[in-house]
Amino acid sequence: MNRLPEILAPVGSEEALIAAVRSGADAVYFGSGSCNARRGAGSFEGDALLHAVQYCHARNVRVYVTVNTLLRDEELANVADTLTDIAASGADGIIVQDMAVVPLAKAICPDLALHASTQMAVHNAAGVTELEQLGFSRVVLARELTGTEIAKIREQTHAELEVFVHGALCMSASGMCYLSASLGERSGNRGTCAQPCRLPFVCNGAQNCLSLKDMSHLDHLEELSRIGVTSFKIEGRLKRPEYVAATVDAARRARDGETYSVDGLRAVFSRSGFTDGYYTGKRNHTMFGTRSQEDADRSKEVLSSYRELYRSERASVPVSVNLSIREGQPVCLSVSDGTNAVTLQGEAPQIARTTPATKESVGRSVAKTGGTPFFVTNITAEIDPGLMVPSSVLNALRREALEKLLALREKTPRRTIRTPNLSLHGSGRHANDPKYIVRFANAEQVFSHPAIAVRTLPVEQLLAHPELIDESIWCELPDLCYPMDEERLSEQLKSLYALGVRDAMLGNIGMVRPAREAGMRLHGAFGLNVTNRLACEQYAALGFESLTVSFELSYPKMRDLHSSIPLGCIVAGRLPLMQFRSCPARTATGCGACNGSPVLTDRTGRTFPIVCHQRQYSTLLNSVLYDTADKRLPELDYYQIHLTIETKEEAKALFESVLRGEKPEAERTTGMSFRNLL
Predict the structure, then answer these.
(1) Helices and strands (H and E) in the chain: how many
(2) What is the pTM assigned to this prediction?
(3) How much is the average pLDDT of 323-350?
């Protein structure tokens, strides 16, 4: 018999943990240590972590711990200690973003399950399959997928699939947002997002066009169950315990085919209501909303009612009871959950003066489990005639037996835990003659220069302009390729290979397999979010021949980064801040009114260009040029100029100014190059 998809609840405090479990969650997820994507939420460490896992396991609730932020080299030793603690606690799995965690976790505790975080932006079958091969047992899919796309991924893969079904939506594809880091030095990839997207931004006259309503896919849980999704995930580790209780209760009811209160859910927390626009594919202006004063006032009115959902223990663990009442022998009570058993003896039974004991009469006493997580499913009794046992004796035996059974269920399972034999601190690397790579956005920008070692162009641009193909050309794969386009992309790459293209630049795990299967050499773009040496080695093991380091890493950190394969960094260009599937430039009538060059305007009047990619997704660019040419650059193997909306003349002028090490005349930013992000 197939198990129902689990209801996976967010936990950010001890009270939220109790609320989740008592409201009917099948599993919970929370952070431990500083390496989790909601550093503002409560963290479970040391004894608190152990007790949280024991509490959950005693009540048949699984525990997944988040280790889902980007890591720096100096943090790896601390992360290893955190992983050791998680493994020792008995937690069921870890949720991972940084590839560095993969070899660390395998070295420390091979049987600790790996779950790929939504921060890895896995949105197609190729990405799921690649992670399966790396040892991930579960993948948390991107929130931007439709139901049809989830079904297609399920048909082509074997790993467990986890899907967000309720909670806040990020405007950008998760793991691909650099807005908070660029504007406020607080990185979403480091668990400290300041949510600048909730501020007023205007596009095509629309207000607050980076603020999406909260998602709610609870009406689609039956379909997701049929598709074969393993886990229904609720967002909200920063939310109140009442929110956790309300959403868990609603999700459990929806999954089980029962009625739930949409109005109650909206009252406890919403942003002008909910949206299922991603799931249904109706990605339009109706998806956007903000948290109003009316929303906040409604929340205050209902919070107390939702506390009732977790005021008392929830009976969630079935047990069987056996009672033996024999003349001249101690009363014997046994309680079993199917795995653990407790047997206790009391005083000998008495001769009944009036009504002797029967299975029904003693059953009423031993079946009372209030205040515990147990409920009795079966009672067997062997009772000699003419005997009686006081109810107080049976009640005392039952209470003690259930207490001991609960203690047995709280025992931490034994695991093999090793000290990782990995070098966590590598020496710096210094290139004597760094090469220049120019990323062109389109064929119209392309120019020649003897200092350019490599030129990259998007796949569709190279197919349209095969005359540009030579030994210096690499094809740039899209950042996002959704399930219905995977086969087309594979065919395009094979065509490019036949035309002589041998190298592919890619920034998402879902692009690895199509590039590899086309026979191309792999080169990592900034989107892989490489910030430490273990991640470098993990990608090298996957077959990558070079990597572009994340521009969220400071130059001093880059200088100390060690790798067995060539490393590079972006030194000039407009940096991407977000990747949209629900484009803010799209109006109520669709894309027809778009001039192809929409902009976003913030509250200070700054404009941020939006670049469309074949109407599949769009990219928000920074309002100003990133340029560090006049600074001391890290001694890496190559420097990249990231061209986007520049004309050919502007592109050439930018490249030549970089070669000369000149400070640009126009306004510029040095980004995170000389800042350590929180």
Answers:
(1) 20, 30
(2) 0.95
(3) 96
